[in-house]
Amino acid sequence: MGFLNQQHGGNTVIGESKYSSTAHYRSGLACMVNSEIGAVLAVMRRNVRWGIRYTTDDDQFEHSLIQSFKELRKQIFSWQNQWHTISPVLYLQPFLDVIKSDETGAPITGVALSSVYKFLSLEILDIDTVNVDDALHQVVDAVTSCRFEVTDPGSEEVVLMKILQVLLACMKNKASVKLSNQHVCNIVNTCFRVVHQASSKGELLQRIARHTMHELVRCIFSHLRDIANVKHAPSQGGRSYTKKEVSALDEDCSLESKQLDNGSMGLENNSQPPPVEVTSNDCSGVLVGKMDECKTEVGQEEDAENGGHVMMEPYGIPCMVEILHFLCSLLNVMDHVEIGLGPNPIAYDEDVPLFALGLINSAIELGGASIGDHPKLLSLIQDELFHNLMQFGLSMSPLILSTVCSIVHNLYHHLRTKLKLQLEAFFSCVLLRIAKGKHGASYQQQEVAMETLVDLCRQQEFVSEMYANFDCDISCSNVFEDLANLLSKSAFPVNGPLSAMHTLALDGLIAMIQGMASRVGNVSLPPEQASLDLEEYKPFWMVKCESYNNSGHWVAFLRKMKYIKRRLMVGADHFNRDPKKGLEFLQGIHLLPDKLDPKSVACFFRYTTGLDKNLVGDYLGNHDEFCIQVLHEFARTFDFQDMTLDTALRVFLETFRLPGESQKIQRVLEAFAERYYEQSPHILANKDAALLLSYSLILLNTDQHNAQVKKKMTEDDFIRNNRRINGGSDLPREYLSELYRSICENEIRMTPEEGAGFPVTIPSNWISLMHKMKQAAPFVICASGAHLDYDMFAILSGPTIAAISVVFDNVEQEDILQSCIEGFLAIAKIAACYHLDDVLNDLVVSLCKFTTLLHPLPAEETLLAFGNDNKARMATGAVFAIANRYGDFIRSGWKNILDCILSLHKLGFLPTRLVSDAADELEPSSELERGRLATSSGPAARILSTAHSRKSSGLMGRFSQLLYLDSEEPASQPSEEELAAHQRILQMIQDCHIDSIFAESKFLQAESLLQLSQALILAAGRRRKGNNFLEDENIAVFSLELLIAVALNNRDRIMLLWQGIYEHIASVVQSIVMPCALVEKAVFGLLRICQRLLPYKEDLTDELLKSLQLILKLDARVADAYCEHITQEVMRLVKANAMQIRSHIGWRTITSLLSITARHPEASETGFETLSFIMSGGAHLLPANYVLCVNAARQFAESRVGHVERSIRSLDLMAGSIVCLSKWSCKTKEASGEEAMKMYQDIGEMWLRLVQGLKKVCLDQREEVRNHAILSLQQSFTAIDGIYLPIELWFQCFDLVIFALLDDLLEIAQENSPKDYRNMEGSLALSIKLLLKVFLQFMHDLYQSASFCKLWLGVLNRMEKYMKVKFRGKRGEKIHELVPELLKNALLVMKARGILVPSDVSEDSFWQLTWLHVKKISASLQVEVFPGNELEQLQVKQIQTGGTPVSDENIVVPSGQTTV
């Protein structure tokens, strides 16, 4: 490192940094060079010829090669500190001289090559080395022109390997960027010659040579990304297929290899690629000769175009173009070998094309997308390379096909935007055809093609881009649809076992589906489908996309084009059957104008695929004036600029079949000639010349390619036939000769369908494709968006489900089954995201079939079979995964899902917590329900219980077993297999989360929820074949429990489900006449629904409570069995929701249910507790429920089920309710008008119903109840402060209640034994007291009525009857004493109030009638009421005043009504 300090002074740091990578080599470089000199000299001295030489005068001197090494030795140590200033040429030259010398043998050349390789590999030469470019050029020149004497085969191979080493080291050296284009071409040229020569050498050399060639190509093309776009690259253009090299191929094959006269072999190169000397007459040697010719021509062309400087510039695009063109030229030999998929193709050597294809693949891998930045490279790939790939893709070699597919895969990845039509041609005409097995493709070829397609499908954007760029392009084939059909049809075997091909196709299908699934979100909406119907005509070939940078624009554009394409295909089908009707159909769908014009019809023919080309040709050749106009417009759609006449004719005739009639041919060719002359007037004088020459080409084509023509036209004949056609002068001979050769070598297909096998591989068709590129729409890049997945999935879903289902049904391999399940789940995700309900339902139906749960078998057999069937368990897991994840979009599929659930329930596998979880964590409503839910009768439960019994051990366990040994036959022990199967099923069910389906049903969309509910109702009511009644009932109960759970979890949407649930429960309740689990579940489920929903659904209160009337319709036996528990549930409901119940309908249902319990021993206590809760203190009494509650309380009072205290409490509830009436009456005062009157009327009606109810209880057989009822009735009459009761109502009350009560009690006392009605005298006394008390309390108000006298006479009449009553034949002393006393009191009150006063003495006056009846009761009462002369004084006073307190009109009793 010291010399760096001396040389650079202050720049020491910079110098050290600059030379640090090679400093440790350069410090000993002199020793290294010296060592290499010694090695070369040592080998040279082994041969005496290199020792000394003698001149004629006997002077001895050393050979110049040895002398140069010695001179170098003298200098190297003097350069010790100056190596960085020394040109490498100075110390490399002696070694390079040895390499170039033809006097040295292989060992000496080999050592010299090793020395040079050492200098290069140790990076002594770098980009900063002085004169490094000259040094590298001389190294390349020397090695590429290496000559040596062949001493033995082994040493020869060593030298060739070292040549490869050195050349590769040159390219890998950092200074290789200094190499010129020409030198890089020479390196590749030399390496390829070594590759060729190695074919006759050892295996090791062959492999090393090929490997070196690959490394060279990689090194060169890896540099492409660092090169800017070269402006001098020639413009693109279609290449002519009049290949000169083709005609020279046979001549090249006759060349013999040359050897040097002195027996040495050489690889010389003198600034231009030399002729290659080979050692065999193998045809592959022809390719080397062709390479030399091609490179020489190209190099000369480049020099001519660029002043001879391009090839000498630092290497870049020119040399890469040369190399790629050379590699493509290696494939051109296949143009002359018949390639096809027939059974006996001509054999050919696949080694050379495989090698060339491998090198091309390496170049594309390293060049990548940068190739597209350089027009000439891109042009080679678009045209020559891809055409060769198309041809080689149809070879019989699977190995070649595989390599071709790899290249195309790379091209798609890097350059698909520049290769749209080429990729379409390859996919359609090669991959898809071979994968279908058409035209005799072998199984290996099909497998390679299928592998390629599947690999492409695994790239997410591939499928979308195929659909967007080809299926949505009216001028392209439907690649996506063809691919989907191929994969779906190839995925399952038809008449044989599953093969690797089927598995590949399945992988491809699943890859396509999973790619779509990964692009859609967890929640998505179907794309907004704008109306695609064409409302008016617009030229479809003129429709353009506004912007390919805006997905909103190009997605809509592509959808529209796909729609147009579909309609065009339908129109083409109509046209092929009847051209006239076809055009009319297109007019009807607005793809052609209502009034046809020539241009629209011409463009329809030009741009529509699928048309019958014979019909198109006949139409264009028709003599009709409109058809002639269409023909000329059709010709104007072509662009013939820069095309030779034969190429233009090929492009033109490729679109239709030339008619057979001469007149039609004339018209067609005239239109063609006119168009061609418009665009290419350079050589032809006029359009007539173009017409005549076109005719001549047609004739030549027929002559050359018609087998019936024996004597073929020669070139001279053709030229002679076309004399003086160019406006009276001759066309250039070279021009005509080129046309002649082109027609001879490549036939113009006059009948397009003849080439239907592989049409694009035909040269003329390939030319048409290249021409079509100019007008092709740009390639749309589909990144990660799911823009077109909805459209693609609509096409793909049906075939995919069918294909995966068939595979799933026919295989047992777990990995394939798992792939199928993943495919099913991906389909479900996409269908859910795009709301494709039908697709999801079809998928569920298919999967449910594979669960085996839908096929009834004996339970034990099903258990074991299901536990051991991995496929069935996987399908079951998938079904429930779909139900949990995408239940929103399941419709009819719920039925199948529920069938699976019910089968699992029947087997006893569903956990008991399933329903309780789904029911929003509700506990069972009754002990009966708890008991039923906790038990399971399926075989799984029996196995489980047996398995647990195995674990019972110890003395007590064994003792208990002995105790029951004789009592019953022991159950059979399950086998280990059954236990294992049972465990697998349990684990599967746990993973399925079946309970979540119902627990999370509140998140389902309305339509899906309704379908689930309907499926549950159907399952609960359906009888199943092979099931007994108990099994059907068990399933019905379980289904009903799930239905109730769904209802409870969807309280906010209960009205959506309510009608169906109610009708189902009603059918159960009304059809069952004996207690059973089903009716129990129905009744208590209904009660649970009401309990849970009443607090949240005030608007549904009446509807829910009305539904409880179903309980009233229960059969008596059923009602009796569940009455207590029903009442308990009703009590819970009332206590929790009394404030929510406001309507009469709701309370009527509640009180009806409570009234029933009044006479039920077990339920009455709960029922009365509930009624007490409602009525106590009037807390929950309402006008809507008052009468209902009073009636219910009356029934409890009349009931003898409970103790007398309950009846008395009931009466207290009734009497206490009068407080509510008073309160409501007070509130009524605040109202006014008709509303107040209506409210008063209602209160009066309620009061009347109350006293009527109490009156009924007053007739009870039990003394305590009867007497308490009379007192309660009295309270109800007297404690009505604030209650407004009309006078009419009071009279009605006396008639219906009080008088009726006294009459009924009197009748009971007289007609029934005292044993039945104890102490009736006391009850009569209470009732008569009630009568007089009520009468006196309200007498003032009643007195104002005209009916007062009638009422009073009724009172007197009842008192008179009671005076006559006898008990056991004796007069009742208590009554006999009480009645006169009560009457006296009443008379005194009436006297005091001025009601009872003397009046006229008419017999029907109030005064006279009163005393008439009073005297019958007690004759002394008048004297007691009016003692002494008080009566006479009153009469005198009345006469004096001339009036009475009460007019006679008010007290006169109508005729015939003197008594009541």
Please provide a written account of the structure:
The protein is mainly α. 65% of the residues lie in helices and 1% in strands. The protein contains 69 helices and 6 strands. The strands form 3 sheets. The chain has a two-stranded antiparallel sheet. The chain is elongated and about 195 Å long.
Biggest β-sheet: strands ordered side by side in the sheet? 1-2
Helix content: 55-70%
Find the structural class using helix and strand composition.
mainly alpha
Ends distance = 150 Å
The quaternary state of the protein chains shown equals: single chain
* Main sheet summary: 2 strands, antiparallel
Number of E-state strands: 6
The whole-angstrom Rg is 57 Å
Provide a count of the helices.
69
Overall 3D form: elongated
User: What low-confidence regions span 5 or more consecutive residues with pLDDT below 50?
Assistant: 1-22, 54-60, 229-265, 268-307, 335-348, 753-758, 917-935, 946-968, 1443-1460
- What is the typical, i.e. mean, pLDDT? 80
Relative strand content? under 5%
Which labels suit this protein?
1460 residues, mainly alpha, two-stranded antiparallel ribbon, disordered N terminus
Task: Produce the secondary structure layout.
Blueprint: H1 2-8, H2 12-19, H3 23-26, H4 29-45, E1 53-54, E2 60-61, H5 64-76, H6 88-100, H7 106-121, H8 132-144, E3 147-149, H9 153-172, H10 181-198, H11 203-222, H12 244-247, H13 249-253, E4 264-266, H14 284-305, H15 317-331, H16 351-367, H17 375-393, H18 398-415, H19 420-435, H20 443-457, H21 460-471, H22 479-490, H23 500-519, H24 551-577, H25 579-588, H26 598-607, H27 613-620, H28 625-636, H29 645-653, H30 662-679, H31 687-705, H32 715-721, H33 733-745, H34 763-772, H35 789-810, H36 814-833, H37 837-850, H38 859-868, H39 870-886, H40 893-906, H41 913-918, H42 927-934, H43 939-950, H44 955-963, H45 976-992, H46 994-999, H47 1006-1021, H48 1029-1049, H49 1054-1071, H50 1077-1093, H51 1101-1107, H52 1109-1112, H53 1116-1137, H54 1144-1156, H55 1164-1175, H56 1186-1198, H57 1204-1216, H58 1218-1228, H59 1233-1257, H60 1263-1278, H61 1287-1311, H62 1320-1337, H63 1339-1343, H64 1348-1364, E5 1366-1367, E6 1370-1371, H65 1373-1392, H66 1406-1417, H67 1421-1425, H68 1430-1441, H69 1448-1451
Antiparallel strand pairs: 1-2, 3-4, 5-6
